[in-house]
Amino acid sequence: MKIDGRPYRTIFPDADGRSVAVIDQTRLPFAFEVKRLTSLDDAAVAIRTMVVRGAPLIGVTAAYGLALAMREDASESGIERASATLAATRPTAINLRWALDRMAALLRSVLAAERESRAFTEAARIADEDVASCRAIGEHGAKILAEIAARKGRPVNVLTHCNAGWLATVDWGTALAPIYVAHDAGVPVHVFVDETRPRNQGAALTAFELNAHGVPHTVIADNAGGHLMQHGQVDICIVGSDRTTAAGDVCNKIGTYLKALAASDNRVPFYAALPFSTIDWTLSDGVRDIPIEERDAREVTHLTGRTDAGDFATIAVVSPGSPVANPAFDVTPARLVTGLITERGVCEATEEGLAGLYPERRKAA
Ligand code: MRU
């Protein structure tokens, strides 16, 4: 991804060798600022406060957080403590747990004196693998978009929810990767961007990315999607995922399920794009078993943005004193999902579909 012509990843080891740099997503789209993480605490706070967010990116940030922790305490109990601190930051995205388990297993297998450098190397490897996976998701998903554009003989209209772009990963994104690959290959694509209340990741982050990459798009209120689908204005929905069960249930940003219902009612294909690190092979009933993060009521009661004068301002939008609930994710049952776009290809959202792409997992589970 390029910002003002300069290539960026969302997370990278800093040139000083002592810290990790991340793009502060709480400041976008109005300010592009890079923040330095120098300790376990910095990494945990960055994930909890959503300076970094998006399932794959919080996994990579947790991996670097563990590396920073090894500088402070490389003992066995240091690994345990740091893993527990990072795992507690956000409960729904399985990539966080996946990255921590992978890092901890490696660190336990090497001497304490080697742990810091091995941890940084492994975190960088996880980041590189994420980029490769997302790029491959883009290649597979772009074929679906190219086929629709060719069949319709006009730009393909994609609806997406939240931000599952390069800002949610290390680069490329999951749901947005097919859009970038198709756009770069000359396939005409237009994207309807759900604003994604309460935090507005669509309006703020997805729109920022698509603008930066020059992809035609239109931001819509969350409630507009069903209407557009009824009127034939959406050819395909593509969303990301924070956790996908072995049976193909897709947990993603709150509101995804409603879009899947509308898509099903209007026969609009509904895809989720995700890397292997998002699949929770231990679960088969997502609605029952995936923990849904409940976030601060203030995200619903208040909005932050930029005034016409150029200042940042936070304003109240809810009647004072009204009780508020803020579930951050929901689960779309597999029966509403047309297919899963992964780094290994596209499959049905079923146990058999996933097992066909990941045969080694069928044996392991
Ligand atoms: O709460 P967030 O902003 O971390 O939620 C992000 C999402 O729901 C994304 O759609 C999901 O992580 C997929 S990211 C490639």
Task: Explain how this protein is built.
The chain is an alpha/beta fold and 365 residues long. The chain folds into two domains: 2-129, translation initiation factor eif-2b, domain 1 (Four Helix Bundle (Hemerythrin (Met), subunit A)), CATH 1.20.120.420; 151-361, Rossmann fold. The protein has helices spanning 40-48, 55-72, 76-87, 94-108, 112-152, 177-184, 201-213, 225-230, 256-265, 286-289, 298-301, 351-357, 359-364; strands at residues 2-3, 6-7, 11-13, 20-23, 34-37, 156-160, 189-194, 217-220, 236-239, 243-245, 250-253, 270-273, 279-280, 302-306, 312-316, 329-332, 339-342, 345-347. The longest helix is centred in the middle third of the chain and has 41 residues, at 112-152. The protein is globular. The structure holds 5-S-methyl-1-O-phosphono-5-thio-D-ribulose. 5-S-methyl-1-O-phosphono-5-thio-D-ribulose (MRU) binds next to helix 2 and strand 11.
Observed structural traits:
Rossmann fold; 2 domains; globular; four-stranded mixed beta sheet; seven-stranded mixed beta sheet; binds 5-S-methyl-1-O-phosphono-5-thio-D-ribulose; alpha/beta; 365 residues; Four Helix Bundle (Hemerythrin (Met), subunit A); 13 helices
Layout of strands and helices, then pairs:
Blueprint: E1 2-3, E2 6-7, E3 11-13, E4 20-23, E5 34-37, H1 40-48, H2 55-72, H3 76-87, H4 94-108, H5 112-152, E6 156-160, H6 177-184, E7 189-194, H7 201-213, E8 217-220, H8 225-230, E9 236-239, E10 243-245, E11 250-253, H9 256-265, E12 270-273, E13 279-280, H10 286-289, H11 298-301, E14 302-306, E15 312-316, E16 329-332, E17 339-342, E18 345-347, H12 351-357, H13 359-364
Parallel strand pairs: 6-7, 6-9, 7-8, 9-12, 10-13, 12-17
Antiparallel strand pairs: 1-2, 3-4, 4-5, 10-11, 11-16, 14-15, 17-18
Helix pairs in contact: 1-2, 2-3, 2-4, 2-5, 3-4, 4-5, 5-6
The site of 5-S-methyl-1-O-phosphono-5-thio-D-ribulose has 18 residues, from helix 2 and strand 11.
